[in-house]
Amino acid sequence: MRVLKSMIVLICMDAVVHLFPFSMLAFLLRKIHTTQKCSESDESVMRTLNFACLLYPRVVRCLVYSAAATILLRRAGFDVALVVGVRKMPFTAHAWCELDGKPVLDDTVARDGLLPAFRM
């Protein structure tokens, strides 16, 4: 059941990221607040999301993954933020989730030299 929920969130976030402007994603994430803490750990939520990504028919990019993780973790009661970092030269961008100011299951190499441009 949790994998199905993660898959549905992935599908929705994939559609939002690819069909609408970034402002729509920002609007949606601002509307989803942290709920009352449930019995799931953050590692359990992320394991389930990672398994759903393996089953997903498309490549899941960092923005879709981070948006889905943000929603699932907030619904599980964790106060997480989606962060988008950028570097001007050469241009690169990466998105990740932070829980208590620390990245949640993210590659430190991908974040090297990036300045947070957006946090929600």
Structural commentary:
By secondary structure, this protein is of the alpha+beta class. It has five helices and four strands; from the N terminus they run H-H-H-H-E-E-E-H-E. It has helices at 2-19, 22-31, 42-55, 62-75, 108-111; strands spanning 80-87, 92-99, 102-103, 115-119. It has a four-stranded antiparallel beta sheet with strand order 3-2-1-4, with helices on one face. Strand 1 (80-87) and strand 2 (92-99) form a beta hairpin. Helix 1 crosses helix 3 (42-55). The longest helix has 18 residues, at 2-19. It is globular. The N and C termini lie far apart (28 Å). The model has no long low-confidence stretch (mean pLDDT 91).
Key traits:
120 residues, alpha+beta, four-stranded antiparallel sheet, 4 strands, globular
Alpha-carbon distance between the two ends: 28 Å
Which structural category do the helix and sheet elements fall into? alpha+beta
Our count of helices gives 5
Q: State the strand order across the main sheet.
A: 3-2-1-4
Order of helices and strands: HHHHEEEHE
Relative strand content: 15-25%
The radius of gyration is: 14 Å
Shape: globular
State the assembly state of the protein chains.
Answer: single chain
Largest sheet: number of strands, sense, barrel closure:
4 strands, antiparallel
Instruction: Indicate the low-confidence ranges by residue numbers.
Output: none
Number of strands: 4
What's the average pLDDT? 91
Name the helicity range: 40-55%
